[in-house]
């Protein structure tokens, strides 16, 4: 007799993602497929509109770093973040499991539900934010259509891409990547012809705050990396495509965004103007607007896969459609504003989590793939939760972020401990190392 799982497997094309966690992942993505995917994620409208975050803005939103310091900080943060992204990509390729399922081996099946719920919440937020960004950018091109029309159109495209995720990745490689590269080259030529102010005037005191802001953007993809690299043909392709493909394009996009910001004298409300005011600017900027849908696609698909860690037999197509509708409705109703604060909170959670995962997966006693228990009976590992918490505390002590009550709480903790962070301290790097070392210590002491 044919089981429900077998019938579902027959319904799914063999070159597509599995419908449930009961089915094996198709190993069909090569280096160039994945490079195109990560490279396109690196070129985001947020890199233009959010470029000011790498200039370490103060509490009043005024940048404290000069443009050149911001470029260097962004490059350093992006390279470090790219390497972390590459590390997060390898376990998926080795085990064939998505990101949140991998956490069963790290924390235990039941304890993995906590970061899974957190990941679902932040991915729904990112998906909603992306639809808002797409709609606002589309209105910059042509405001003759109501904003809600753009939101619904972006939501529909996102949902279609999410239903056929691997086909969407291959589509990016064949067509979208070429168009994006042409648009980038064109805008670089045009913007470099514009008169620029002095890019070096100012202090480099907030360098690591800027680097952490750029690193946080890369880290925001760490909790979903394995959702795609589990389909990679090799571990080397997974690491290289994620680390290099994403880093190169994010640096290119952020430098372009910072140049645009310099042209408009730091006015973040006009950061798109230098793109739209040049000859054919509207045409090439439209490529960026359409391409932004791969960001919302990645967020929505990974939300569906994350939910499957909680409900393994849920059909991802049903989840994808439901989530597509959800983020569209939220984008119609909400106005997400605190971008820098949002990035800071995401980084503070997932940077130390990656430190624990990397240390335990690559250096721990269960580092062989067959020793990584991803079953629903995986035992709880409270020691790894403690290591994660230690890294999280280190991050908050150094950089508590800008979200009012949260930052005030950690400022009080700093005062109680008589701790004052120095400008050379990177919250991301130090929390990653602290969490990783704590995980190795826990592993040695407990033998687990």
Write the SSE topology.
Blueprint: H1 4-11, H2 31-42, H3 45-49, H4 67-95, H5 99-107, H6 113-141, H7 147-163, H8 165-191, H9 207-219, H10 225-229, H11 235-263, H12 273-276, H13 281-291, H14 293-310, H15 316-333, H16 339-363, H17 382-398, H18 404-417, H19 427-446
How would you characterize this protein structure?
This protein is mostly helical and 448 residues long. Helix content is 69%, strand content 0%. The longest helix is centred in the first third of the chain and has 29 residues.
- Structural class by secondary-structure content: mainly alpha
- According to CATH, the homologous superfamily of the domain at 29-339 is Hydantoin permease
- Helix share of residues? 55-70%
Strand content: under 5%
**Helical element count?**
19
Shape verdict: globular
Mean pLDDT: 88
Family: Belongs to the purine-cytosine permease (2.A.39) family.
Transmembrane segments: 37-55, 67-90, 111-135, 147-167, 174-192, 204-226, 238-265, 271-290, 318-336, 342-363, 384-407, 419-442
Protein name: Hydroxymethylpyrimidine transporter CytX
Keywords: Membrane, Transmembrane, Transmembrane helix
